[in-house]
């Protein structure tokens, strides 16, 4: 039997993004491989969100190359992304998921069971009939994660998924990330929270001014950073 086609690894090769004469990303070379989450860190304006969009396939590089499993024209059917401020549809939490499942092509007869499964996965099983826009910020973020998982992606991109959340809501989102990773889904996420990066990451990518400054496994990055920028950033100093 032929092996199923995979979007992994995702390779960025000298990929740059320029917008109206402004360089957002400059000659990024990075490999996103199966395994533990890859976490992008860096100051505001470093290019984290643009890198997520580029790897997702929402942006084309101004120069260089992006490939998914060796293909440069792979549609994003096996990739999903959750933005920092997801928009909730005007329906219940379960209704949001049923809509996402229909959009993903899931058979109608299977949607009810799949909706229950996804709500349970993100810890919202008892809130299925609650209007989605009445959920708390953390609950909405978890519902957005469940919607993204409706298409059963191989890769899940998360843009600052716990920004502005309190510690309890942050832990609930991180628990979902751990559960998703245990299912074999590759998570690539950005965060400003170094504590969260330590708790979640297998690999750290430090960005600054559109450049990849350092890439290392999480333990090595925080115990023995290899660049001056990484040492300053992990010490809480500003990168300007």
Secondary-structure map with pairings?
Blueprint: E1 10-19, E2 22-32, E3 38-41, H1 48-56, E4 63-68, E5 79-82, H2 93-103, H3 108-121, H4 137-149, E6 155-159, H5 167-182, E7 186-190, H6 194-200, E8 203-208, E9 211-217, H7 218-223, H8 228-234
Parallel strand pairs: 3-7, 3-8, 5-6, 6-7
Antiparallel strand pairs: 1-2, 1-4, 8-9
Helix pairs in contact: 2-3, 2-4, 4-5
Number of strands: 9
Shape: globular
**Low-pLDDT ranges:** none
Major β-sheet strand ordering: 5-6-7-3-8-9
Give the integer mean of the pLDDT values: 95
Provide the gyration radius in Å. Answer: 18 Å
Characterize the largest beta sheet: strand count, sense, and whether it forms a barrel. Answer: 6 strands, mixed
CATH class of one domain: Alpha Beta
Task: Please characterize this protein's 3D structure.
The chain has 240 residues and is α/β, with parallel strands linked by helices. It has a domain at 10-86 and 152-234: Rossmann fold. 35% of the residues lie in helices and 24% in strands. It contains 8 helices and 9 strands. The chain has a 6-stranded mixed β-sheet, sandwiched between helices. A hairpin with a 2-residue loop joins strand 8 (203-208) and strand 9. Helix 4 runs parallel beside helix 5. It is globular and about 55 Å long. The mean pLDDT is 95.
